Amino acid sequence: MSKLSRRTFLTVPAGLAVTTGLIRAAAPASAAPRSPAGGTEVAVLGGGVAGLSAAHELAERGFQVTVYERRALGGKARSMPVPGTGQGGRQDLPGEHGFRFFPGFYLNLPDTLRRIPFPGNANGVFDNLVAADTELITRTGGRADLPLPVRLDPPAVLDPDTLVKLVRGLLETALHLPAPEAAFFANRVLVYLTSCDARRLGQWEQTSWWDFVQAERMSEDYQRLLAIGLTRNLTAMRAETASTHTVGRILEAFLFTALGRDDYGAVDRLLNGPTNEVWIDPWVRHLTDLGVRLRVGWTVTGLDYSAGRIAAATATDEHGGQQRINADWFVCAVPIERAVPLWNADLLAADPALARARELRTEWMVGLQFYLRQPTPVTRGHAVHVDSPWALTSIGQAQFWPRHDFARDFGDGSVRDCLSVIISNWTAPGVLFGKPALECTPEEIRGEVWAQLKAALEDTGEPVLPDDALHSWFLDPGVTGLGGPDPHNDDPLLVHPVGTWTRRPAAVTAIPNLFLAADYVRTDVDLATMEGANEAARAAVNGILDAAGSTAPRCQVRTLYQAPEFAPLRAEDEVNYRLGLPNVFDPVPA
Question: Where does the Amine oxidase domain start and stop, copy by copy (predicted)?
Fold first, then answer.
């Protein structure tokens, strides 16, 4: 465990509270745009979820918005056709960077979905979300697969003793963990839930999840299920380096979702069709109706800083021409690996927070789709293959797409399902070729993932994935150079090793007309997700409204639920933390 002295405890700034700069605004956006003061032209640099969210909020408030996107609107969230696969009037097979996942604790993004019209839906695109019934953890070697409940019976009273019993019972029954290990992990959950904001950011942000849950001294199943598997599949991170603050915060959110707290929705929600069809394309149409100008094929190449402001952005347009982008306000909504090259020495000198953000890291988390000649009734929800070396998660999509008959609508008429898989570990050796995914060719990756899925799903002898059921496959086209000396991923994922929080910038920068909207921005959800991107966009728009002197209502920014029953314990923990004392429930020496 990371060592923190009494002096370190006492010198953690109170301003590092989780909710710093994050508000619950009372009023949602007005349906009628209101003209802002102080300049109305906004250039949104990047057309992913963050960029489109910012454009949406700004356009509703009367700003003149232009979005500049280098490749395709929707970014990592978009779906894409597999070229040349549609026959007989059918659509091309649906491909994607990775399956969409909308946990119930997503609150900001669903609000945006409700404001995107969709024919026949009273609540717009939001009504295209459907709930999964089950979650499944698969094991190899003939061990029983573990179904997880998506809803827990809420206790009459939620106190520390009840919480520990609830979590312990879940781990013993659902995951078959030994009672002492289940009890210990339940206690660690209690410690995190009763930790004050200052401890979460001052102590747990500096402690790896592996150390926090004491994985080193536990059984292999404990390590695999609660340390390695949890962090790899949630954050694409190694448990040995993942921030306890980040992992604990998401685990807390899932727990309260399962307990039906706040106005959280179902634990696991996904779209009822291909992402572009049921979300991105309707969104683009709505933004166009709001007057947003969309420039696709434009690659932003620089920011011109002059007289203490962004004077212009430079870009290469879809024809290769050099363009100068003029605006009153600039929203940088490109991912971190593309934002950093835009921040020249003048910008870094003007805002040191941008310099710290250059230290942020990314890892690979990439999707692969298998198109099958038969349905794959593995489970009606996501399957987490915790024993797979490449940390695979999967879902059979056809069962959630009632608007489509796969064979009738896609491909050549013989495909009946799409098994969508995400590969979260690209550096571990595989079971088929003994190489990490980074060293494999696309065909080797296809074979390796298929073999790892079969090891997880067919270890009891049932032919869940017969080889003759495989029709074809599709790997995210953003991954190039596989099998060669320089593999490249166009869409890496921001990860959260210990100490990441202080390196992440706020949405409002020290440059008065530059704002940041992307999943690397400091947000309450504290995880690189669509929700984090949407939340960052709302914070950036509120910053513009303040700077412009606009009277338009501010964007509502919803924060994660905190159990009121634990508020006195969190207050007590704040006192203990300031005194250099451990959490009252923490038996592990700090």
Answer: 49-544
Q: What is the pTM of this model?
A: 0.91
Distance CA 102, CA 450 (A): 26
Beta bridge mates, 65? 42
CATH top-level class of 20-71+297-362+493-548: alpha beta
Do 390 and 423 touch, CB atoms closer than 8 A? yes
Q: Is the distance from CB of 113 to CB of 102 less than 8 angstroms?
A: no
pLDDT score, position 1: 37
CA–CA gap between residue 167 and residue 158 (Å, rounded): 12
**pLDDT tens digits for range 440-485:** 999 999 999 999 999 999 998 888 999 999 999 999 999 999 999 9
Rounded distance between C-alpha atoms, residue 208 and residue 189, angstroms: 14
Compute the distance between CA of residue 272 and CA of residue 99 in angstroms, rounded to an integer.
12
Pair 525, 489: CB distance under 8 Å: no
Taking only the tens place, the pLDDT of each residue in 118-159 is 999 999 999 999 999 888 999 999 888 988 888 888 898 999
**Centroid of chain to Cα 291:** 29
The alpha carbon dihedral of 349, 352, 353, 357 has a sign of positive
Nearest residue to 99 (alpha-carbon basis) of 302, 320, 368, 454:
368
**What is the spatial distance between Cα 203 and Cα 4, in angstroms, rounded to a whole number?**
7
List 410's β-bridge partners, or say none: 91
What is the rounded (10 degree) CA torsion for 174, 175, 181, 184? -50
Ramachandran area for residue 420 (φ above 0: left; ψ -120 to 50: alpha; else beta): beta
Classify strands 64-69 and 309-316 as parallel, antiparallel or unpaired.
Answer: unpaired
Q: Is the distance from CB of 72 to CB of 361 less than 8 angstroms?
A: no
SS3 content of the chain, % helix, strand, coil (to 5): 35, 20, 45
Q: Are 116 and 290 in contact (CB under 8 A)?
A: no
pLDDT per residue over 203-248, tens digit each? 999 999 999 999 999 999 999 999 998 887 767 788 899 999 999 9
Q: What span, in angstroms and rounded, lies between the C-alpha atoms of 2 and 209?
A: 11
Closest Cα partner for 239 from 229, 254, 253, 250? Answer: 229
| CB half-sphere exposure, 511, CA atoms < 13 A | 30
- CA–CA separation, 448 vs 539, rounded Å? 42
Q: How much is the pLDDT for 150?
A: 84
Domain residue ranges of the chain, discontinuous segments joined by +: 6-12+157-265, 20-71+297-362+493-548, 76-133+267-274+365-489
